[in-house]
Structure formats: C-alpha cells, structure tokens
Amino acid sequence: MLPNVLRTNAADHVPVLADEVQRLLAVRSGETVVDATFGAGGHSRLLAADLEGRGKLVAIDRDPTVRSYFDQVKASAQGVQMRFLRGDYAVVLGQLASNDVKADVVLLDLGLSSMQVDRPERGFSYATDAPLDMRMDPSEELTAAEVVSSWDERELASIFRKFGEERYARQIARGIVRRREESPIERTGQLVDVVRASIPAPARFGEGHPAKRVFQALRIEVNHELESLEHGLPAAFEMLRPGGRLAVISFHSLEDRIAKRFLRDRARGCTCPPDFPVCVCGREPELRIVTSRPVRPSAHEVESNPRAASARLRVAVKV
Length: 319
What we know:
With about 325 residues, the chain is of the alpha/beta class. It folds into two domains: about 10-115 and about 225-319, Rossmann fold; about 130-225, Putative methyltransferase TM0872, insert domain (DNA polymerase, domain 1, Orthogonal Bundle). Helices cover about 40% and strands about 15% of the residues. It contains 13 helices and seven strands. Helix 3 (about 65-75) links the parallel strand 2 (about 55-60) and strand 3. The longest helix is centred in the C-terminal third of the chain and has 15 residues, at about 225-240. The chain is globular.
C-alpha cells in the first residue's frame, strides 16, 4: 500500500510553463478555476493566488497521495473556496458538466508529475529498479507487470508502436515473451535489461534512454491516458462559461495531436464546400485559439527543470 501522506521536496512544486500559464489564462478575482490534473499543486498554488481571496478552485486527481499537497495549497489560499475531487479527470469533468457546474478556467497538465517519477515504489521510472507498477490510481487492478507478463507478443508490439512510437516494437515484444518464459518480469530493471538486449547496439546509445518509449507506452496503456484526454476535452469545454479559457499542457506528440485537433475543430466555422454561394451548414466557431502555435518552455526553464523540455501549451477561449 502507498502511504496517504508522502514526503515533499522542491521538485514536486515546480510547475511547467508557470509564467505562460498565468499570463494566458489571466485568472481574475472571483472566478472559478478547475485544475483537472492537480498533481503536486504547483499550478493550483499560482492560480489560487490570482483569485486574490475570492472565487473557487476545484482540484481533480486520480492519485490519492496528492491530498496532502492539496491541503497545503488550501491553507495558503485563504478566502478561496477549494474542493478536492478524486478520480479520472475525464469522468469527474463529465459529472460536473452534467450537473451544470460552470468554470472560467480549466487546466489540463497531462502526463506524470515529478512526485510520481521520483517515488521509486510507483514503478514509473526506468532509472531506478522498482516494482513494475505504473498505476496513477493505486486502487486500479491493472499494472504494467500484468501487461508485460500476460499480453501476447502481438498485443505488446501494438502498444509499443502505437503509444510509444517505438521503432523496434516487434523485437522488444519478442524479447519480453522469451524472457518471461525463463522467469517473470516484475521489476523495472528487468524490463530495461530486456529492452537493451532486444534492440540493435547503435540504438542503445541514441537520443534518450533506450527504454523511454516502452515505459511511456505501458504507462499510457495502464492508465488509459489517451482515452481520458479524448473524453475529457469535450467535458472541459462544456463546463466553460462564454469567455472561459481552456489550457492543455502535453508532453508528447500523441497528446498534443489530440489537443490540437480538438481545438482546431471547435474553432472552425462554416464547413460548406468553397463553391457554395452561401452558408447552409450554419456552423459557428465555438472556440478562439489563443496560441496559434504551441508555447514551449524557455531555454532558462529547461536548464533549471530539464523535465520541461518536451512540454507544449495550447490555450483557447470559448466564444
């Protein structure tokens, strides 16, 4: 069992693209803010301060261990009404929207938080030998070890290719199946060894860790991350009041592609063929995209927080 209250450290509280998020969301006193992926509360702390003692902040996270971080943010945001809701943000946002709860700001900071990566017992990191877990919600049944131990070679290759964009997906899947015939693969270190042994020698010394894409794919599969994003974006949009702002921070192309497509589709007006003399579809834009290109972290931020290097921020306003 994971402890309900975990130690904290400075890295837990470093929110990615903090200045850009504050500037583009422009939270005003008295508004309602939804931080749909609370994590260690770095963004919530800043946005709650912008409420200036008036307004509401709803924090959502599927990880029960973040409650201690929420309590810290709540204690520092006097006057702001704060509420913590545990669960998959797609489900919780859908429930809030169906109950006609409205918001002025919804933030989705996708992927892992530093606190999850830095806790070896969570099994997210390929840098430390630990149980092969990767569950964001430790009450869920499916673990990365279960996927690696029981899924067939074709299924493994499929998720490595689809969610990790792994060039050597088939070779790695074959290596896993062969290795588990000898002994179970239950730890991150064992999986890293299999990946290294399954790919050509030059690829072991290429850009980044050789197991990075496999770990990403397993994490996405175990936590259904892309499904959550596909369902969470429409729910977030539905919650927004006119003039409300939606921000999405993604960390790999799969997430960013989904966010880009959703914002683009909602920002599109008439869809009639160009040769029609007048519009007959009657479609009006529902969003105005604020960031024509994704906002990337500055060189200074990447230097001080290397994990921010792949972050992309997209922001839109409901019209």
